[in-house]
Design brief:
Elements lengths: L2 H14 L2 H23 L8 H25 L1 H5 L3 H6 L4 H41 L5 H6 L2 H19 L1 H13 L4 H20 L3 H11 L13 H4 L4 H5 L2 H23 L4
């Protein structure tokens, strides 16, 4: 795979799919607007850790939704608007195209979300400090007590390891459906898992597949001593080492590889809708 072609393909995705960064920026802007109003009205409550964790959680949810809808439209959209005829005329392989699209939810969206979250945190901290100074109080205690570097470290791990690596088979499945479906890719992405889960429940009165899917969506490596709540520590109850040593991660990679191989073949064989 040509690295220059891959880089150019990623640039193309960023140019065509601006919701990748516009959606989280809008959400961050609305949250900051609300934070400004709350900070002015209730200055004694500014600077606590909870608002910083909450905006990080909001942006993580938005980033996952952006990644899902991007994947569902990535290969379906170019067939629907017939732009696939133009892109296939270029000397770029189907493998490069599909893998560059896979890099968006796995790498680009987490990095963009992390950068926007950090920028929002800094803006919130500067605003809180300015209000404290305007009221004759010192902002030093705020800067010392707020563990932003720790929050950012855990956020980076959560986004890159959890939303990126752990969700890889989910994104690959959506790309496969996007390459196959002639209409309503979201419906076709949801129906097969639901059908399999239903058949297992009816035929065997068990829920093993449902448990596997639930673990993939909301789980991670099995670790002990986890905490609860909405803090970044609670949302990231594993280290990078624990994630990389988890059999579930590598099984997910194998499944994602199979889905991507099928998506590449479908893009090669299928034309416009």
């Amino acid at each position: 795979m040509n690295s220059q072609q891959f880089y150019s393909s990623v640039q193309r995705e960023l140019w065509e799919s601006r919701s990748i960064y516009i959606a989280p920026v809008v959400v961050a802007g609305w949250y900051f607007f609300g934070f400004v109003i709350n900070a002015v009205r209730l200055p004694q409550r500014i600077g606590i850790e909870q608002p910083y964790d909450f905006v990080a959680l909001m942006l993580m949810v938005i980033s996952f939704l952006v990644a899902v809808f991007y994947c569902l439209d990535a290969l379906y959209g170019e067939r629907r608007d017939r732009s696939i005829l133009f892109w296939k005329s270029l000397p770029v392989s189907d493998s490069t195209t599909v893998l560059s699209k896979m890099s968006i939810p796995v790498v680009v969206v987490p990095l963009v979300t992390f950068a926007i979250t950090v920028a929002t945190h800094i803006a919130m901290l500067l605003l809180s400090s300015a209000i404290l100074l305007a009221r004759g109080a010192s902002g030093a205690a705020l800067w010392n007590q707020l563990p932003l570097t720790h929050i950012w470290r855990m956020l980076f791990i959560h986004l890159m390891a959890g939303h990126g690596l752990w969700y890889a088979p989910i994104y690959a499945w959506f790309l496969l459906v996007s390459a196959w479906a002639r209409r309503a890719p979201l419906l076709w992405a949801a129906l097969p898992p639901l059908a399999v889960v239903s058949v297992e429940k009816i035929a065997f009165n068990s829920s093993h597949i449902a448990a596997i899917l639930q673990h993939r969506f909301v789980g991670g490596p099995e670790v002990s001593g986890t905490t609860t709540g909405l803090s970044m520590d609670a949302m990231t109850p594993y280290t990078v080492g624990e994630l990389l040593s988890s059999p579930g991660l590598w099984i997910g990679f194998a499944v994602a590889t199979a889905f991507l191989a099928a998506a590449i073949k479908l893009r090669r064989d299928r034309g416009p809708i």
